[in-house]
Amino acid sequence: MSIIDTAITRLQQIALESADTTIKSAPQYPVESASVLPMAVAHINTGEAIVHSAGEAQMILTVRVDIHVNLKTLKSAYQQINGIIPDYMRRLGGDPTLNTAAATIVFPVTVEVSATQWNNVQTLMASFSVPIKFRESTL
User: Which domain does 103 fall in, by range?
Assistant: First the structure.
């Protein structure tokens, strides 16, 4: 497993531990029922690299961590999201190297909340953008 995969896995793991709500990992393929909610999925969104010398490169990847909750009732959805957001941010602050998988999280981490859908299921999504700095030796 690459250091990037390890960092993404750690971000996903932190999401699963956030708040009083039990959050599951997103299934490999979208489902057509709300039975998997709340769920989280982490993926690379953007990135950039800087080569400092022939022997060292720095890469900053922004990983999106999307946490979906059921939008069956707006009040319940917002109660869940309102608990997840501060807890997730607090946990990121407590593990800025993602268990040493990365050099550091490059704060600030941003979050957007929007109504969306996962396949045919209506959800309220908190989407975190987490910039992560990696340092690697080049060959």
Answer: 3-26+35-137
CATH number of the domain enclosing 115: 3.30.2000
What is the per-residue pLDDT across 21-76, written as a single tens digit (0 to 9) for each? 777 777 655 556 667 789 888 999 999 988 888 778 889 999 999 999 999 889 99
pTM of the model: 0.86
Round to whole Å and give the CA distance between 111 and 30.
23
Closest CA relative to residue 61, chosen from 135, 134, 114, 116: 134
Q: How many domains does the structure of the chain reveal?
A: 1
